[in-house]
Specification:
8 helices, about 150 residues, mainly alpha
Amino acid sequence: MTRKDEDMAAPTFTPDTGSEAPASPLGALSQLVQNVLDTGISLRRLGERAVDPETGEAVSWQYFQKLVKNPPASPPDPVQMRALAAALNKPYRRVQEAAAKQWLQFEATELSGYDEDVRIIVAHLAGKTAADKRRWRRMIEAEEQARREVDE
């Protein structure tokens, strides 16, 4: 890591829940799936979209149901995580981090694997108030939702 990269290290995109809502009893990946289901997308639709772009392997809608209702004892493998990312319309890295948090109680605390633009954006947000961060998060999520609706 270069000195410039060290200066840009900042927390990952872990949401600041603050006093917004009580912590969910679901694990991080299970909650990510539940959040998408809460937008009105069905389990079957997720299953249709859950195809690993590298191998073409698919994950069934039942796996999504299991993640939310009774998560398996072991985390998804990389093929499954790529398929989950495709279905959830989330970056692979986000799914990977959620799985690490749910099964390994590991939470990334710095940015790695992201380009300079992303690190700069996050560094700017790291200095914002909690209210500002929540506002920026809502704007980003609204943009993602609008893009998903156009894609469907």
